[in-house]
Amino acid sequence: MKRKVINFALKETELSPCELAVTFTDQERYFVSESTVYRTLKAHDLITSPAFIVLKAANEFEHKTTAINQLWQTDFTYLKVLGWGWFYLSTILDDYSRYIISWKLCTNMRAEDVTDTLDLALQASGCDQVHIVHKPRLLSDNGSSYVSGDLAEWLQDKGMKHSRGAPYHPQ
């Protein structure tokens, strides 16, 4: 069967392993998985490099923080309370000092919960009480509450910038 997959791949050079698996299954009436096609082609040096450059996240920030209130990190922590259900701890952490500026225990993970926690952080840090040229930049993951339009609008109103980290990368 591997020889048939290889011959099929040599005839259909434009197809990806996924497309090869589907087309092979349709035409040959024999199921072969994408991973099997990939492993077979790779073992015979028939997998080419992608035609694009893969960008990887850096090991550390290009512009490290040098003082407090330059960069705040935020995330939700899931907490399961037996007999009560799930709760979500929203936190704002100062990147430079590693101090938790504010936190809020929430029953949901909405943009409103993030903005409430940010309001507490702005109040606790004093950033909302005096005129500041550069408000803290917010670093978050790509969760739905962080990519929402409501949060983007709120941050714009407050004069804060927002950065999102790469998936599965701690920074």
TrEMBL record:
<dbReference type="InterPro" id="IPR036397">
    <property type="entry name" value="RNaseH_sf"/>
</dbReference>
<feature type="domain" description="Integrase catalytic">
    <location>
        <begin position="63"/>
        <end position="171"/>
    </location>
</feature>
<dbReference type="GO" id="GO:0015074">
    <property type="term" value="P:DNA integration"/>
</dbReference>
<dbReference type="InterPro" id="IPR050900">
    <property type="entry name" value="Transposase_IS3/IS150/IS904"/>
</dbReference>
<dbReference type="InterPro" id="IPR001584">
    <property type="entry name" value="Integrase_cat-core"/>
</dbReference>
<dbReference type="GO" id="GO:0003676">
    <property type="term" value="F:nucleic acid binding"/>
</dbReference>
<dbReference type="InterPro" id="IPR012337">
    <property type="entry name" value="RNaseH-like_sf"/>
</dbReference>
<protein>
    <submittedName>
        <fullName>Integrase-like protein</fullName>
    </submittedName>
</protein>
<dbReference type="Pfam" id="PF00665">
    <property type="entry name" value="rve"/>
</dbReference>
